[in-house]
Amino acid sequence: MTLTVKEYNKIVDQWADGLFRFAMSMCKDEDVSKDAVQDAFVKLWERRDQVDPTKVKSYLFTTVNHKIIDGFRRDKKYENIDETPTNE
After folding, report:
1. pLDDT by residue (tens digit) across 35-84?
2. Which of 9, 24, 40, 49 is the right S-S partner for 63, CB 3.0 to 4.6 Å?
3. Do the domain assignments include residue 87?
4. Are 44 and 84 in contact (CB under 8 A)?
5. Helices of type H across 47-55
6. Is the CB of residue 37 less than 8 Å from the CB of residue 20?
């Protein structure tokens, strides 16, 4: 079953605030949280034909969770590069 634009907009209205609070509780960064929520909704729209409408909440929260964790991993990788000793 494919989500209609009307159904999608209702889902955004219903879950955007909760997703943002969830993201903020994980990373404490407003910009990162907003980006994660926006990315989750974009991903939902792109996969609207594949996502079970009864599992939209789980899909969105899982997507935000993975986005935040990926950001932590990416940041940690760059921190390790910055800490590489130099031969001076």
Report:
1. 999 999 999 999 999 999 899 999 999 999 999 999 888 877 666 555 55
2. 40
3. no
4. no
5. none
6. yes
